Structure formats: C-alpha cells, structure tokens
Amino acid sequence: MSVSTAPTAVAPGPTASPLVKRSAAAAPKSSWAFADQAIVSLANFAAVVLVGRFGGQEQLGFFTLGVSLYLFALGLGRAVVWTTYTQRHAGLGPDQRRLAAGSATVHLIGFAAATCLAILACAGAASAAGLGAYAAALAGVGPFAAAMLLREHVRRLGLARLQLREVLAFDTLVAVAQLAALGWLAWSGRMSAPAAYGAMAAASLLAVPWMAARRTGWGVDWRRVAPDWRASWATSKWLTGGGLAVLLGKQGYVWLLPAVASVAELGTFGAAQVIVQVTNPILLGGQNYLGPASAKVLAEGGVGALWRFTIRVSLAMAAAIAAYLVGVGLLGLPVVQGVFGETANQVSTLLLVSIAAGALSEAMLIPIEFASINLGRARLMAMTAVVRLAINATVGFALVAAYGAVAIGVGLLAGSLVALAWQWRSFAREARHA
Fold first, then answer.
1. Over the stretch 395-413, which tens digit does the pLDDT of each residue have?
2. What angle do the packed helices 132-160 and 94-128 form, to 10 degrees?
3. For residues 388 and 420, is the Cβ–Cβ distance under 8 A?
C-alpha cells in the first residue's frame, strides 16, 4: 500500500544478557505488530519511490496498476482463507491448530495459482487487443501476485498465533532482499514496472524455505482439506462476497483512470498515494493486532467488553486521522515533490487531501468490521459492501470520469461513511441487548 521502534538485535544464544531478554519479553505484543508493519511498509514505500524516480511517471502508472491487481487478490485471499482461519485458530488445540494451518496452506496455494492464471489470461487478452505495454506489465503481475500471496500467508499464520517476533524476523529478511534487488535495478538503469515485479516476487519466494524450516508448525492431512474448506466457506462466502464488492469499488478506480485519462495520470495518482502509505505502519500494524485481540476480548469479556474496546480504538483512530489530514494539507505537497521529483509535477494539495481522506475513512472501518466478524455478522458486512460498491460505481466513477484522480477520494469517503453508520447502528442494537 509514528511507529514503534523495533527492538535492538542481539546475538542469539546464552550471550544475550538477561536484562535484554527480560526487556524483549516484556514488550507489548502490539509493539511487535507495529514494528513488523513498519518494515513491510518501508519496503513497499521504497519500491514505489524507486520505480517512480528511476522508471518515470508511466512506469509508475503500470506499477500502480499491477499492485492494484495484487491488492485485489490480497483482499479476496483475506476473505477466502485468512480471516476464518484466524477466527477459528484461538479455539483449537495444538494438534488441531497444526492441521488447520496445513489445510489453510493448501487453500492459499490453490488460490494463488488461480490468481496467477487469471492475470496471465488478462495479459493474453491485452496482447490480442494490441495493447503490448499492458500485456508486458500483466505478464509480470501474475507470478508477482502469486509469490506475494505466499509471503503474506507466512505472515498470517504467524499473526494468528501471535508469534509477532517471528513474523518480524521473516519480514525483515524479505524486505532486505527486496530492497537489494530493487536498488540494483535502479543502480544499473534497468528499472521498469515488470522488472520491479520480478524483484519483489523473487524476494517473496523466501517464504518457501521459511515454511519448510518450520514444518513442525503446520502439517497437511489431505482427508481434512476439503472438509476444512467447506467449514470455512460457510462463513467466508459472505466475507468473499462483501470483499469482492469493496475491492471492485476501491480498485476499480485504479483500473478506470487509465481508460478515462492515461497511464501517466495513474502514475500521478500512484505518487500521491504515498501520503497514505506512510500511515501503514500504524494502520496495518494495528489491523494485524486488532484481529486476534478483538476475538480475545469477545471470548473473555463478552459483547459488552467488545463494545467498549471497539469504541476506544475507533475514537483514538478518528483523532489521529483528523490530525494527520491537517498535516497533509500543510506539508504533504512539498514532501511528495521532494520524494519523487519530476514524477510528482502534476500532484496537488487537493489531490493529496482527497486521497488521504478517502483511504483513511476506510481505515475507520477496521475496528467495527473486526467486531462484526467476531460476532458472526459476515452477512451484514456483505450487505454494507454492496452498498459501498453501488456508491463507488455510480457517484464515484462518474466523478472520476469528470474530474480525474482528484475525485477518487470523494467516492471512497462517501461509501465508507454509509458503511460506518450501518455497522455501528447494528452493533449498538446488539450491545444493548447483550
């Protein structure tokens, strides 16, 4: 797509001091989640900047388009595989957790393969239509998306177990490899969107030896794979439907923009998006922690405790977002122009504030949606997602067709406000009757 400082590395084994060990053990688990997301976000931020500065505005546009397709697949993967796995994980015994992780791994591999084939089919269609530049970019996106999904799977398994330090170690390893590969592309003058996809895919494939080295943490019982899928699908079908609606509305803007404007305009949008990406260590780190934490609060304290927890988190997020939007209005433009140079020539303060407001309004949905998931309200989430899609596909798309990238944030904001009001109203009714 402001952060806790990662703990100082120490030598493994008995040479580490007892004080350091006690300090690391005492660190709040949430701080490890934020530190991990800081590493991931920094690596992704650097990828956008390197493609923009050394590949130019058009290549940044193609890169933004490819990342959008991956984010679409990532959102569906979260709905199809990871959310229900995380929800079920806390209630399983050790042996059952291991086998559930194995089944989820098989499900994810199948989903990643299907994603890769679908994107390669789009590349073939683009080539047949004479869109050679799009075909070349999409041909790299397929393997890139599959590799990135496998990397994310390693993260999700660790996050579900709240093994946050191990997740941090894995993400640090991948981030270093990714930055080294992208840095070499920039230094050698070979930077392009397809080359960047290849570099990031290669780094992400470190997930394979990582999982092989931790084989004791997951195992496949092939007799369970299909039953586990059916049990998961009973809930995830609603999450998938809702996620599909949200993703079509959100990523549809990225796909629409080159059609109504140009790939270069999409590059301008991609440069402006970094103003939101710098918040990812907090927002996504919080999201990675809030999923398991919300489930634990409900299990231990009931609906009333979940209501109070969700309100506290939402109010803290609202205050932070309001302050950040003021900062974007005052300082955002010179920061983006300093980072991207000429690639950001068409970026404006209005575009930055619009994108930030739209994206961060979606972040406000995170606490209430976790509450809805843990309360078994996946159907409600699907219904609100369909309404968001309707708003984005009508009002939002029409505004983008008329005004370009600057209107994207308006459509996102309108859809998010409706979804927020609906889900909070439903949650309040349930909390009153609890």
1. 888 988 888 888 888 988 9
2. 170
3. no
